[in-house]
Amino acid sequence: MTIEYATPYRSRSFIPPEPGKPYFVEKGLGDRAHLFGDLVTVYAGGEQTENTFNFFTVEGPKGNLIPAHSHPDTHEVFYVAQGAVRLFVEDLAGEQQERLLTPGDFGFVPKNCPHSYRMERHHSLVVGVAAGPGGTFERFFETLGTPTDELVLPARPFVPAPEKFATVPQQYDVRFLPDHQWRTGDGQS
């Protein structure tokens, strides 16, 4: 049995709005949002973990490189559960790397490191965890994207208005890097 809650973000959710309460969420029934061509599902966030970490999945079609960005106070994990994802990352010394991740592969991006990724196969699924002293950023997905009750990828990509990108750094630990250039072999969008 799954219980529904109301949260500050949604009229209904399967995630309790306060910490210290054990809970279970059936596959896919976390808080969902469409962003670009992806379906993002949040299973645990700042409210439940006292802002120590979040846990989410991103499922998407083969597509374009998502915008380069960094998290000044947050470390991020990429674990590929299905499909293939190409992860691009730059360390603090400016050295860039890219790696094709397939099921079972893991990528770690330390705080302040620019990064981006591209789904290389349709219906790729990434499990993400982000943690750090600055809190969590999972509500960024539904703020920049659009909340949905659907369990499928968006019929059409949801591309936020350009001015919406400017509001994100004030609310969440996400800094977009619109002029960032990937010098690795496949860093083309």
Q: What are its keywords?
A:
189 residues; seven-stranded antiparallel β-sheet; three-stranded antiparallel β-sheet; 3 helices; 34% strand
| Rounded average pLDDT | 90
Enumerate how many helices there are, as a single number: 3
Residues in β-strands, percent? 25-35%
Largest sheet: 7 strands, antiparallel
Helix proportion range: 10-25%
Describe the model.
By secondary structure, the protein is mainly β. Helices cover 10% and strands 34% of the residues. The protein is built from three helices and twelve strands, in the order ββαββββββββαβαβ. The strands form three sheets. Strands 8-5-10-3-2-1-11 form a seven-stranded antiparallel β-sheet. The longest helix has 10 residues, at 162-171. The chain is globular and about 50 Å long. The mean pLDDT is 90.
In brief:
This is Quercetin 2,3-dioxygenase. Residues 61-120 form the Cupin type-2 domain. By secondary structure, the protein is mainly β.
Topology of helices and strands:
Layout: E1 31-35, E2 38-44, H1 46-49, E3 53-60, E4 69-70, E5 75-82, E6 85-90, E7 96-101, E8 106-109, E9 115-119, E10 124-131, H2 140-144, E11 146-148, H3 162-171, E12 175-176
Antiparallel strand pairs: 1-2, 1-11, 2-3, 3-10, 4-12, 5-8, 5-10, 6-7, 6-9
